[in-house]
């Protein structure tokens, strides 16, 4: 159970005691149809189960997204909705089904890298969800988008073979699109449940991939996986297809690759890393970019230190002999992020700034971390930073926090001031730090 789930668990424990004085479980709103009703309305039984999961998850997300613990989730999702307007063609190539399944089950937030789906699973007992529904939520949470070759139809279903793994799937395409052999589909499949059926079901309208061959896509997936060096080789394909190389990696591909659509399928062109192949790829001047340090910094070092001091941090201290200098520590944590996001020393300077923000945030008390992140992002949002930029910054901070815990788990110092000096194509970092009070629990 992640830190956000623990907080939600305590909230729901209190709320459920109040509700259960007169009811056996937390009531589900009337507009959320149960599985039996969905089947009576003509839905396939397996599809009906997963629709019910989506409905319950949607209600849960709406209830918890207003809580301060969920600020890291709400900020990014709200910005993404404004950016992509995910209602399907002709308004947007991102369908509502694609966007909500990504937002509920794939978008990770907070230091615990949680999702709405994992939070729902962690508090499912508090909500009185039965074991069958919990298992369906778990399977939906574990599902991901995938790239598949169409291998024909049989008995009203489509046979799909996944690229790279070669796994075969018997699939009920819920949009009604039958396609034709040789097509490539980008689609989310959910698996059979217990002994209900033996086939998978598509939970998004299929994106049909055009103007790039099976070998082109296989080569792309293999080279993209090489960038996931911190992920075990056996899990890289799953990581790539579920989380992408960045928060909006796959959403950007859909947005930029849109070619045309029909009522039961959407057609995309090109490859994600070949910008010239994408019909709506942005020009370099329009591409999302990190703000400058001056644009991003909302306060001077003195004001930042006052906030830290108010929470109990002590004065600046010199680095003890034999202990790694904080400047070297920060550069070590920042190394892969500078390589990933910075092409110039000025951009490296901005990346280091957000690495320091991520380092510091991860050392704050858990109940303060969402507030700290909101303080960092608020001035950027007010200045019109787009969803891709916000997601990039959140990724830098979350990765920095993760690397701090992995590389320097016992180093409990917070950065109170720093200075990056640029000389030609290189830069130098000086850091002032202070010990974190023992009362702060990370």
Overview of the structural elements:
This protein is α+β, with helices and mostly antiparallel strands. It folds into three domains: 3-142, no CATH class; 145-285, Nucleic acid-binding proteins (OB fold (Dihydrolipoamide Acetyltransferase, E2P)), CATH 2.40.50; 288-435, no CATH class. Helix content is 47%, strand content 15%. It has 17 helices and ten strands. The strands form two sheets. It has a five-stranded mixed barrel with strand order 1-2-3-5-4. A two-stranded antiparallel ribbon has the order 9-10. β7 and β8 (265-269) form a beta hairpin. α4 (71-84) runs parallel beside α16 and α6 (116-122) packs antiparallel against α8 (131-142). The longest helix has 21 residues, at 387-407. It is globular, with a radius of gyration of 24 Å.
**Low-confidence region ranges:** 19-26
Largest sheet, if any? 5 strands, mixed, barrel
Which class do the helix and strand fractions yield?
Answer: alpha+beta
Question: Averaged pLDDT, please?
Answer: 84
Q: State the separation between the terminal residues, measured CA to CA.
A: 15 Å
The helix tally amounts to: 17
Number of domains: 3
Q: Would you report the number of β strands?
A: 10
Query: What portion of the residues fall into strands of 2 or more residues?
Result: 5-15%
Instruction: Output the helix-strand order.
Output: HHHHHHHHEEEEEEHHHEEHHHHHHEE
User: Biggest sheet: strands side by side, in what order?
Assistant: 1-2-3-5-4
Choose one word for the global shape: globular
Radius of gyration: 24 Å
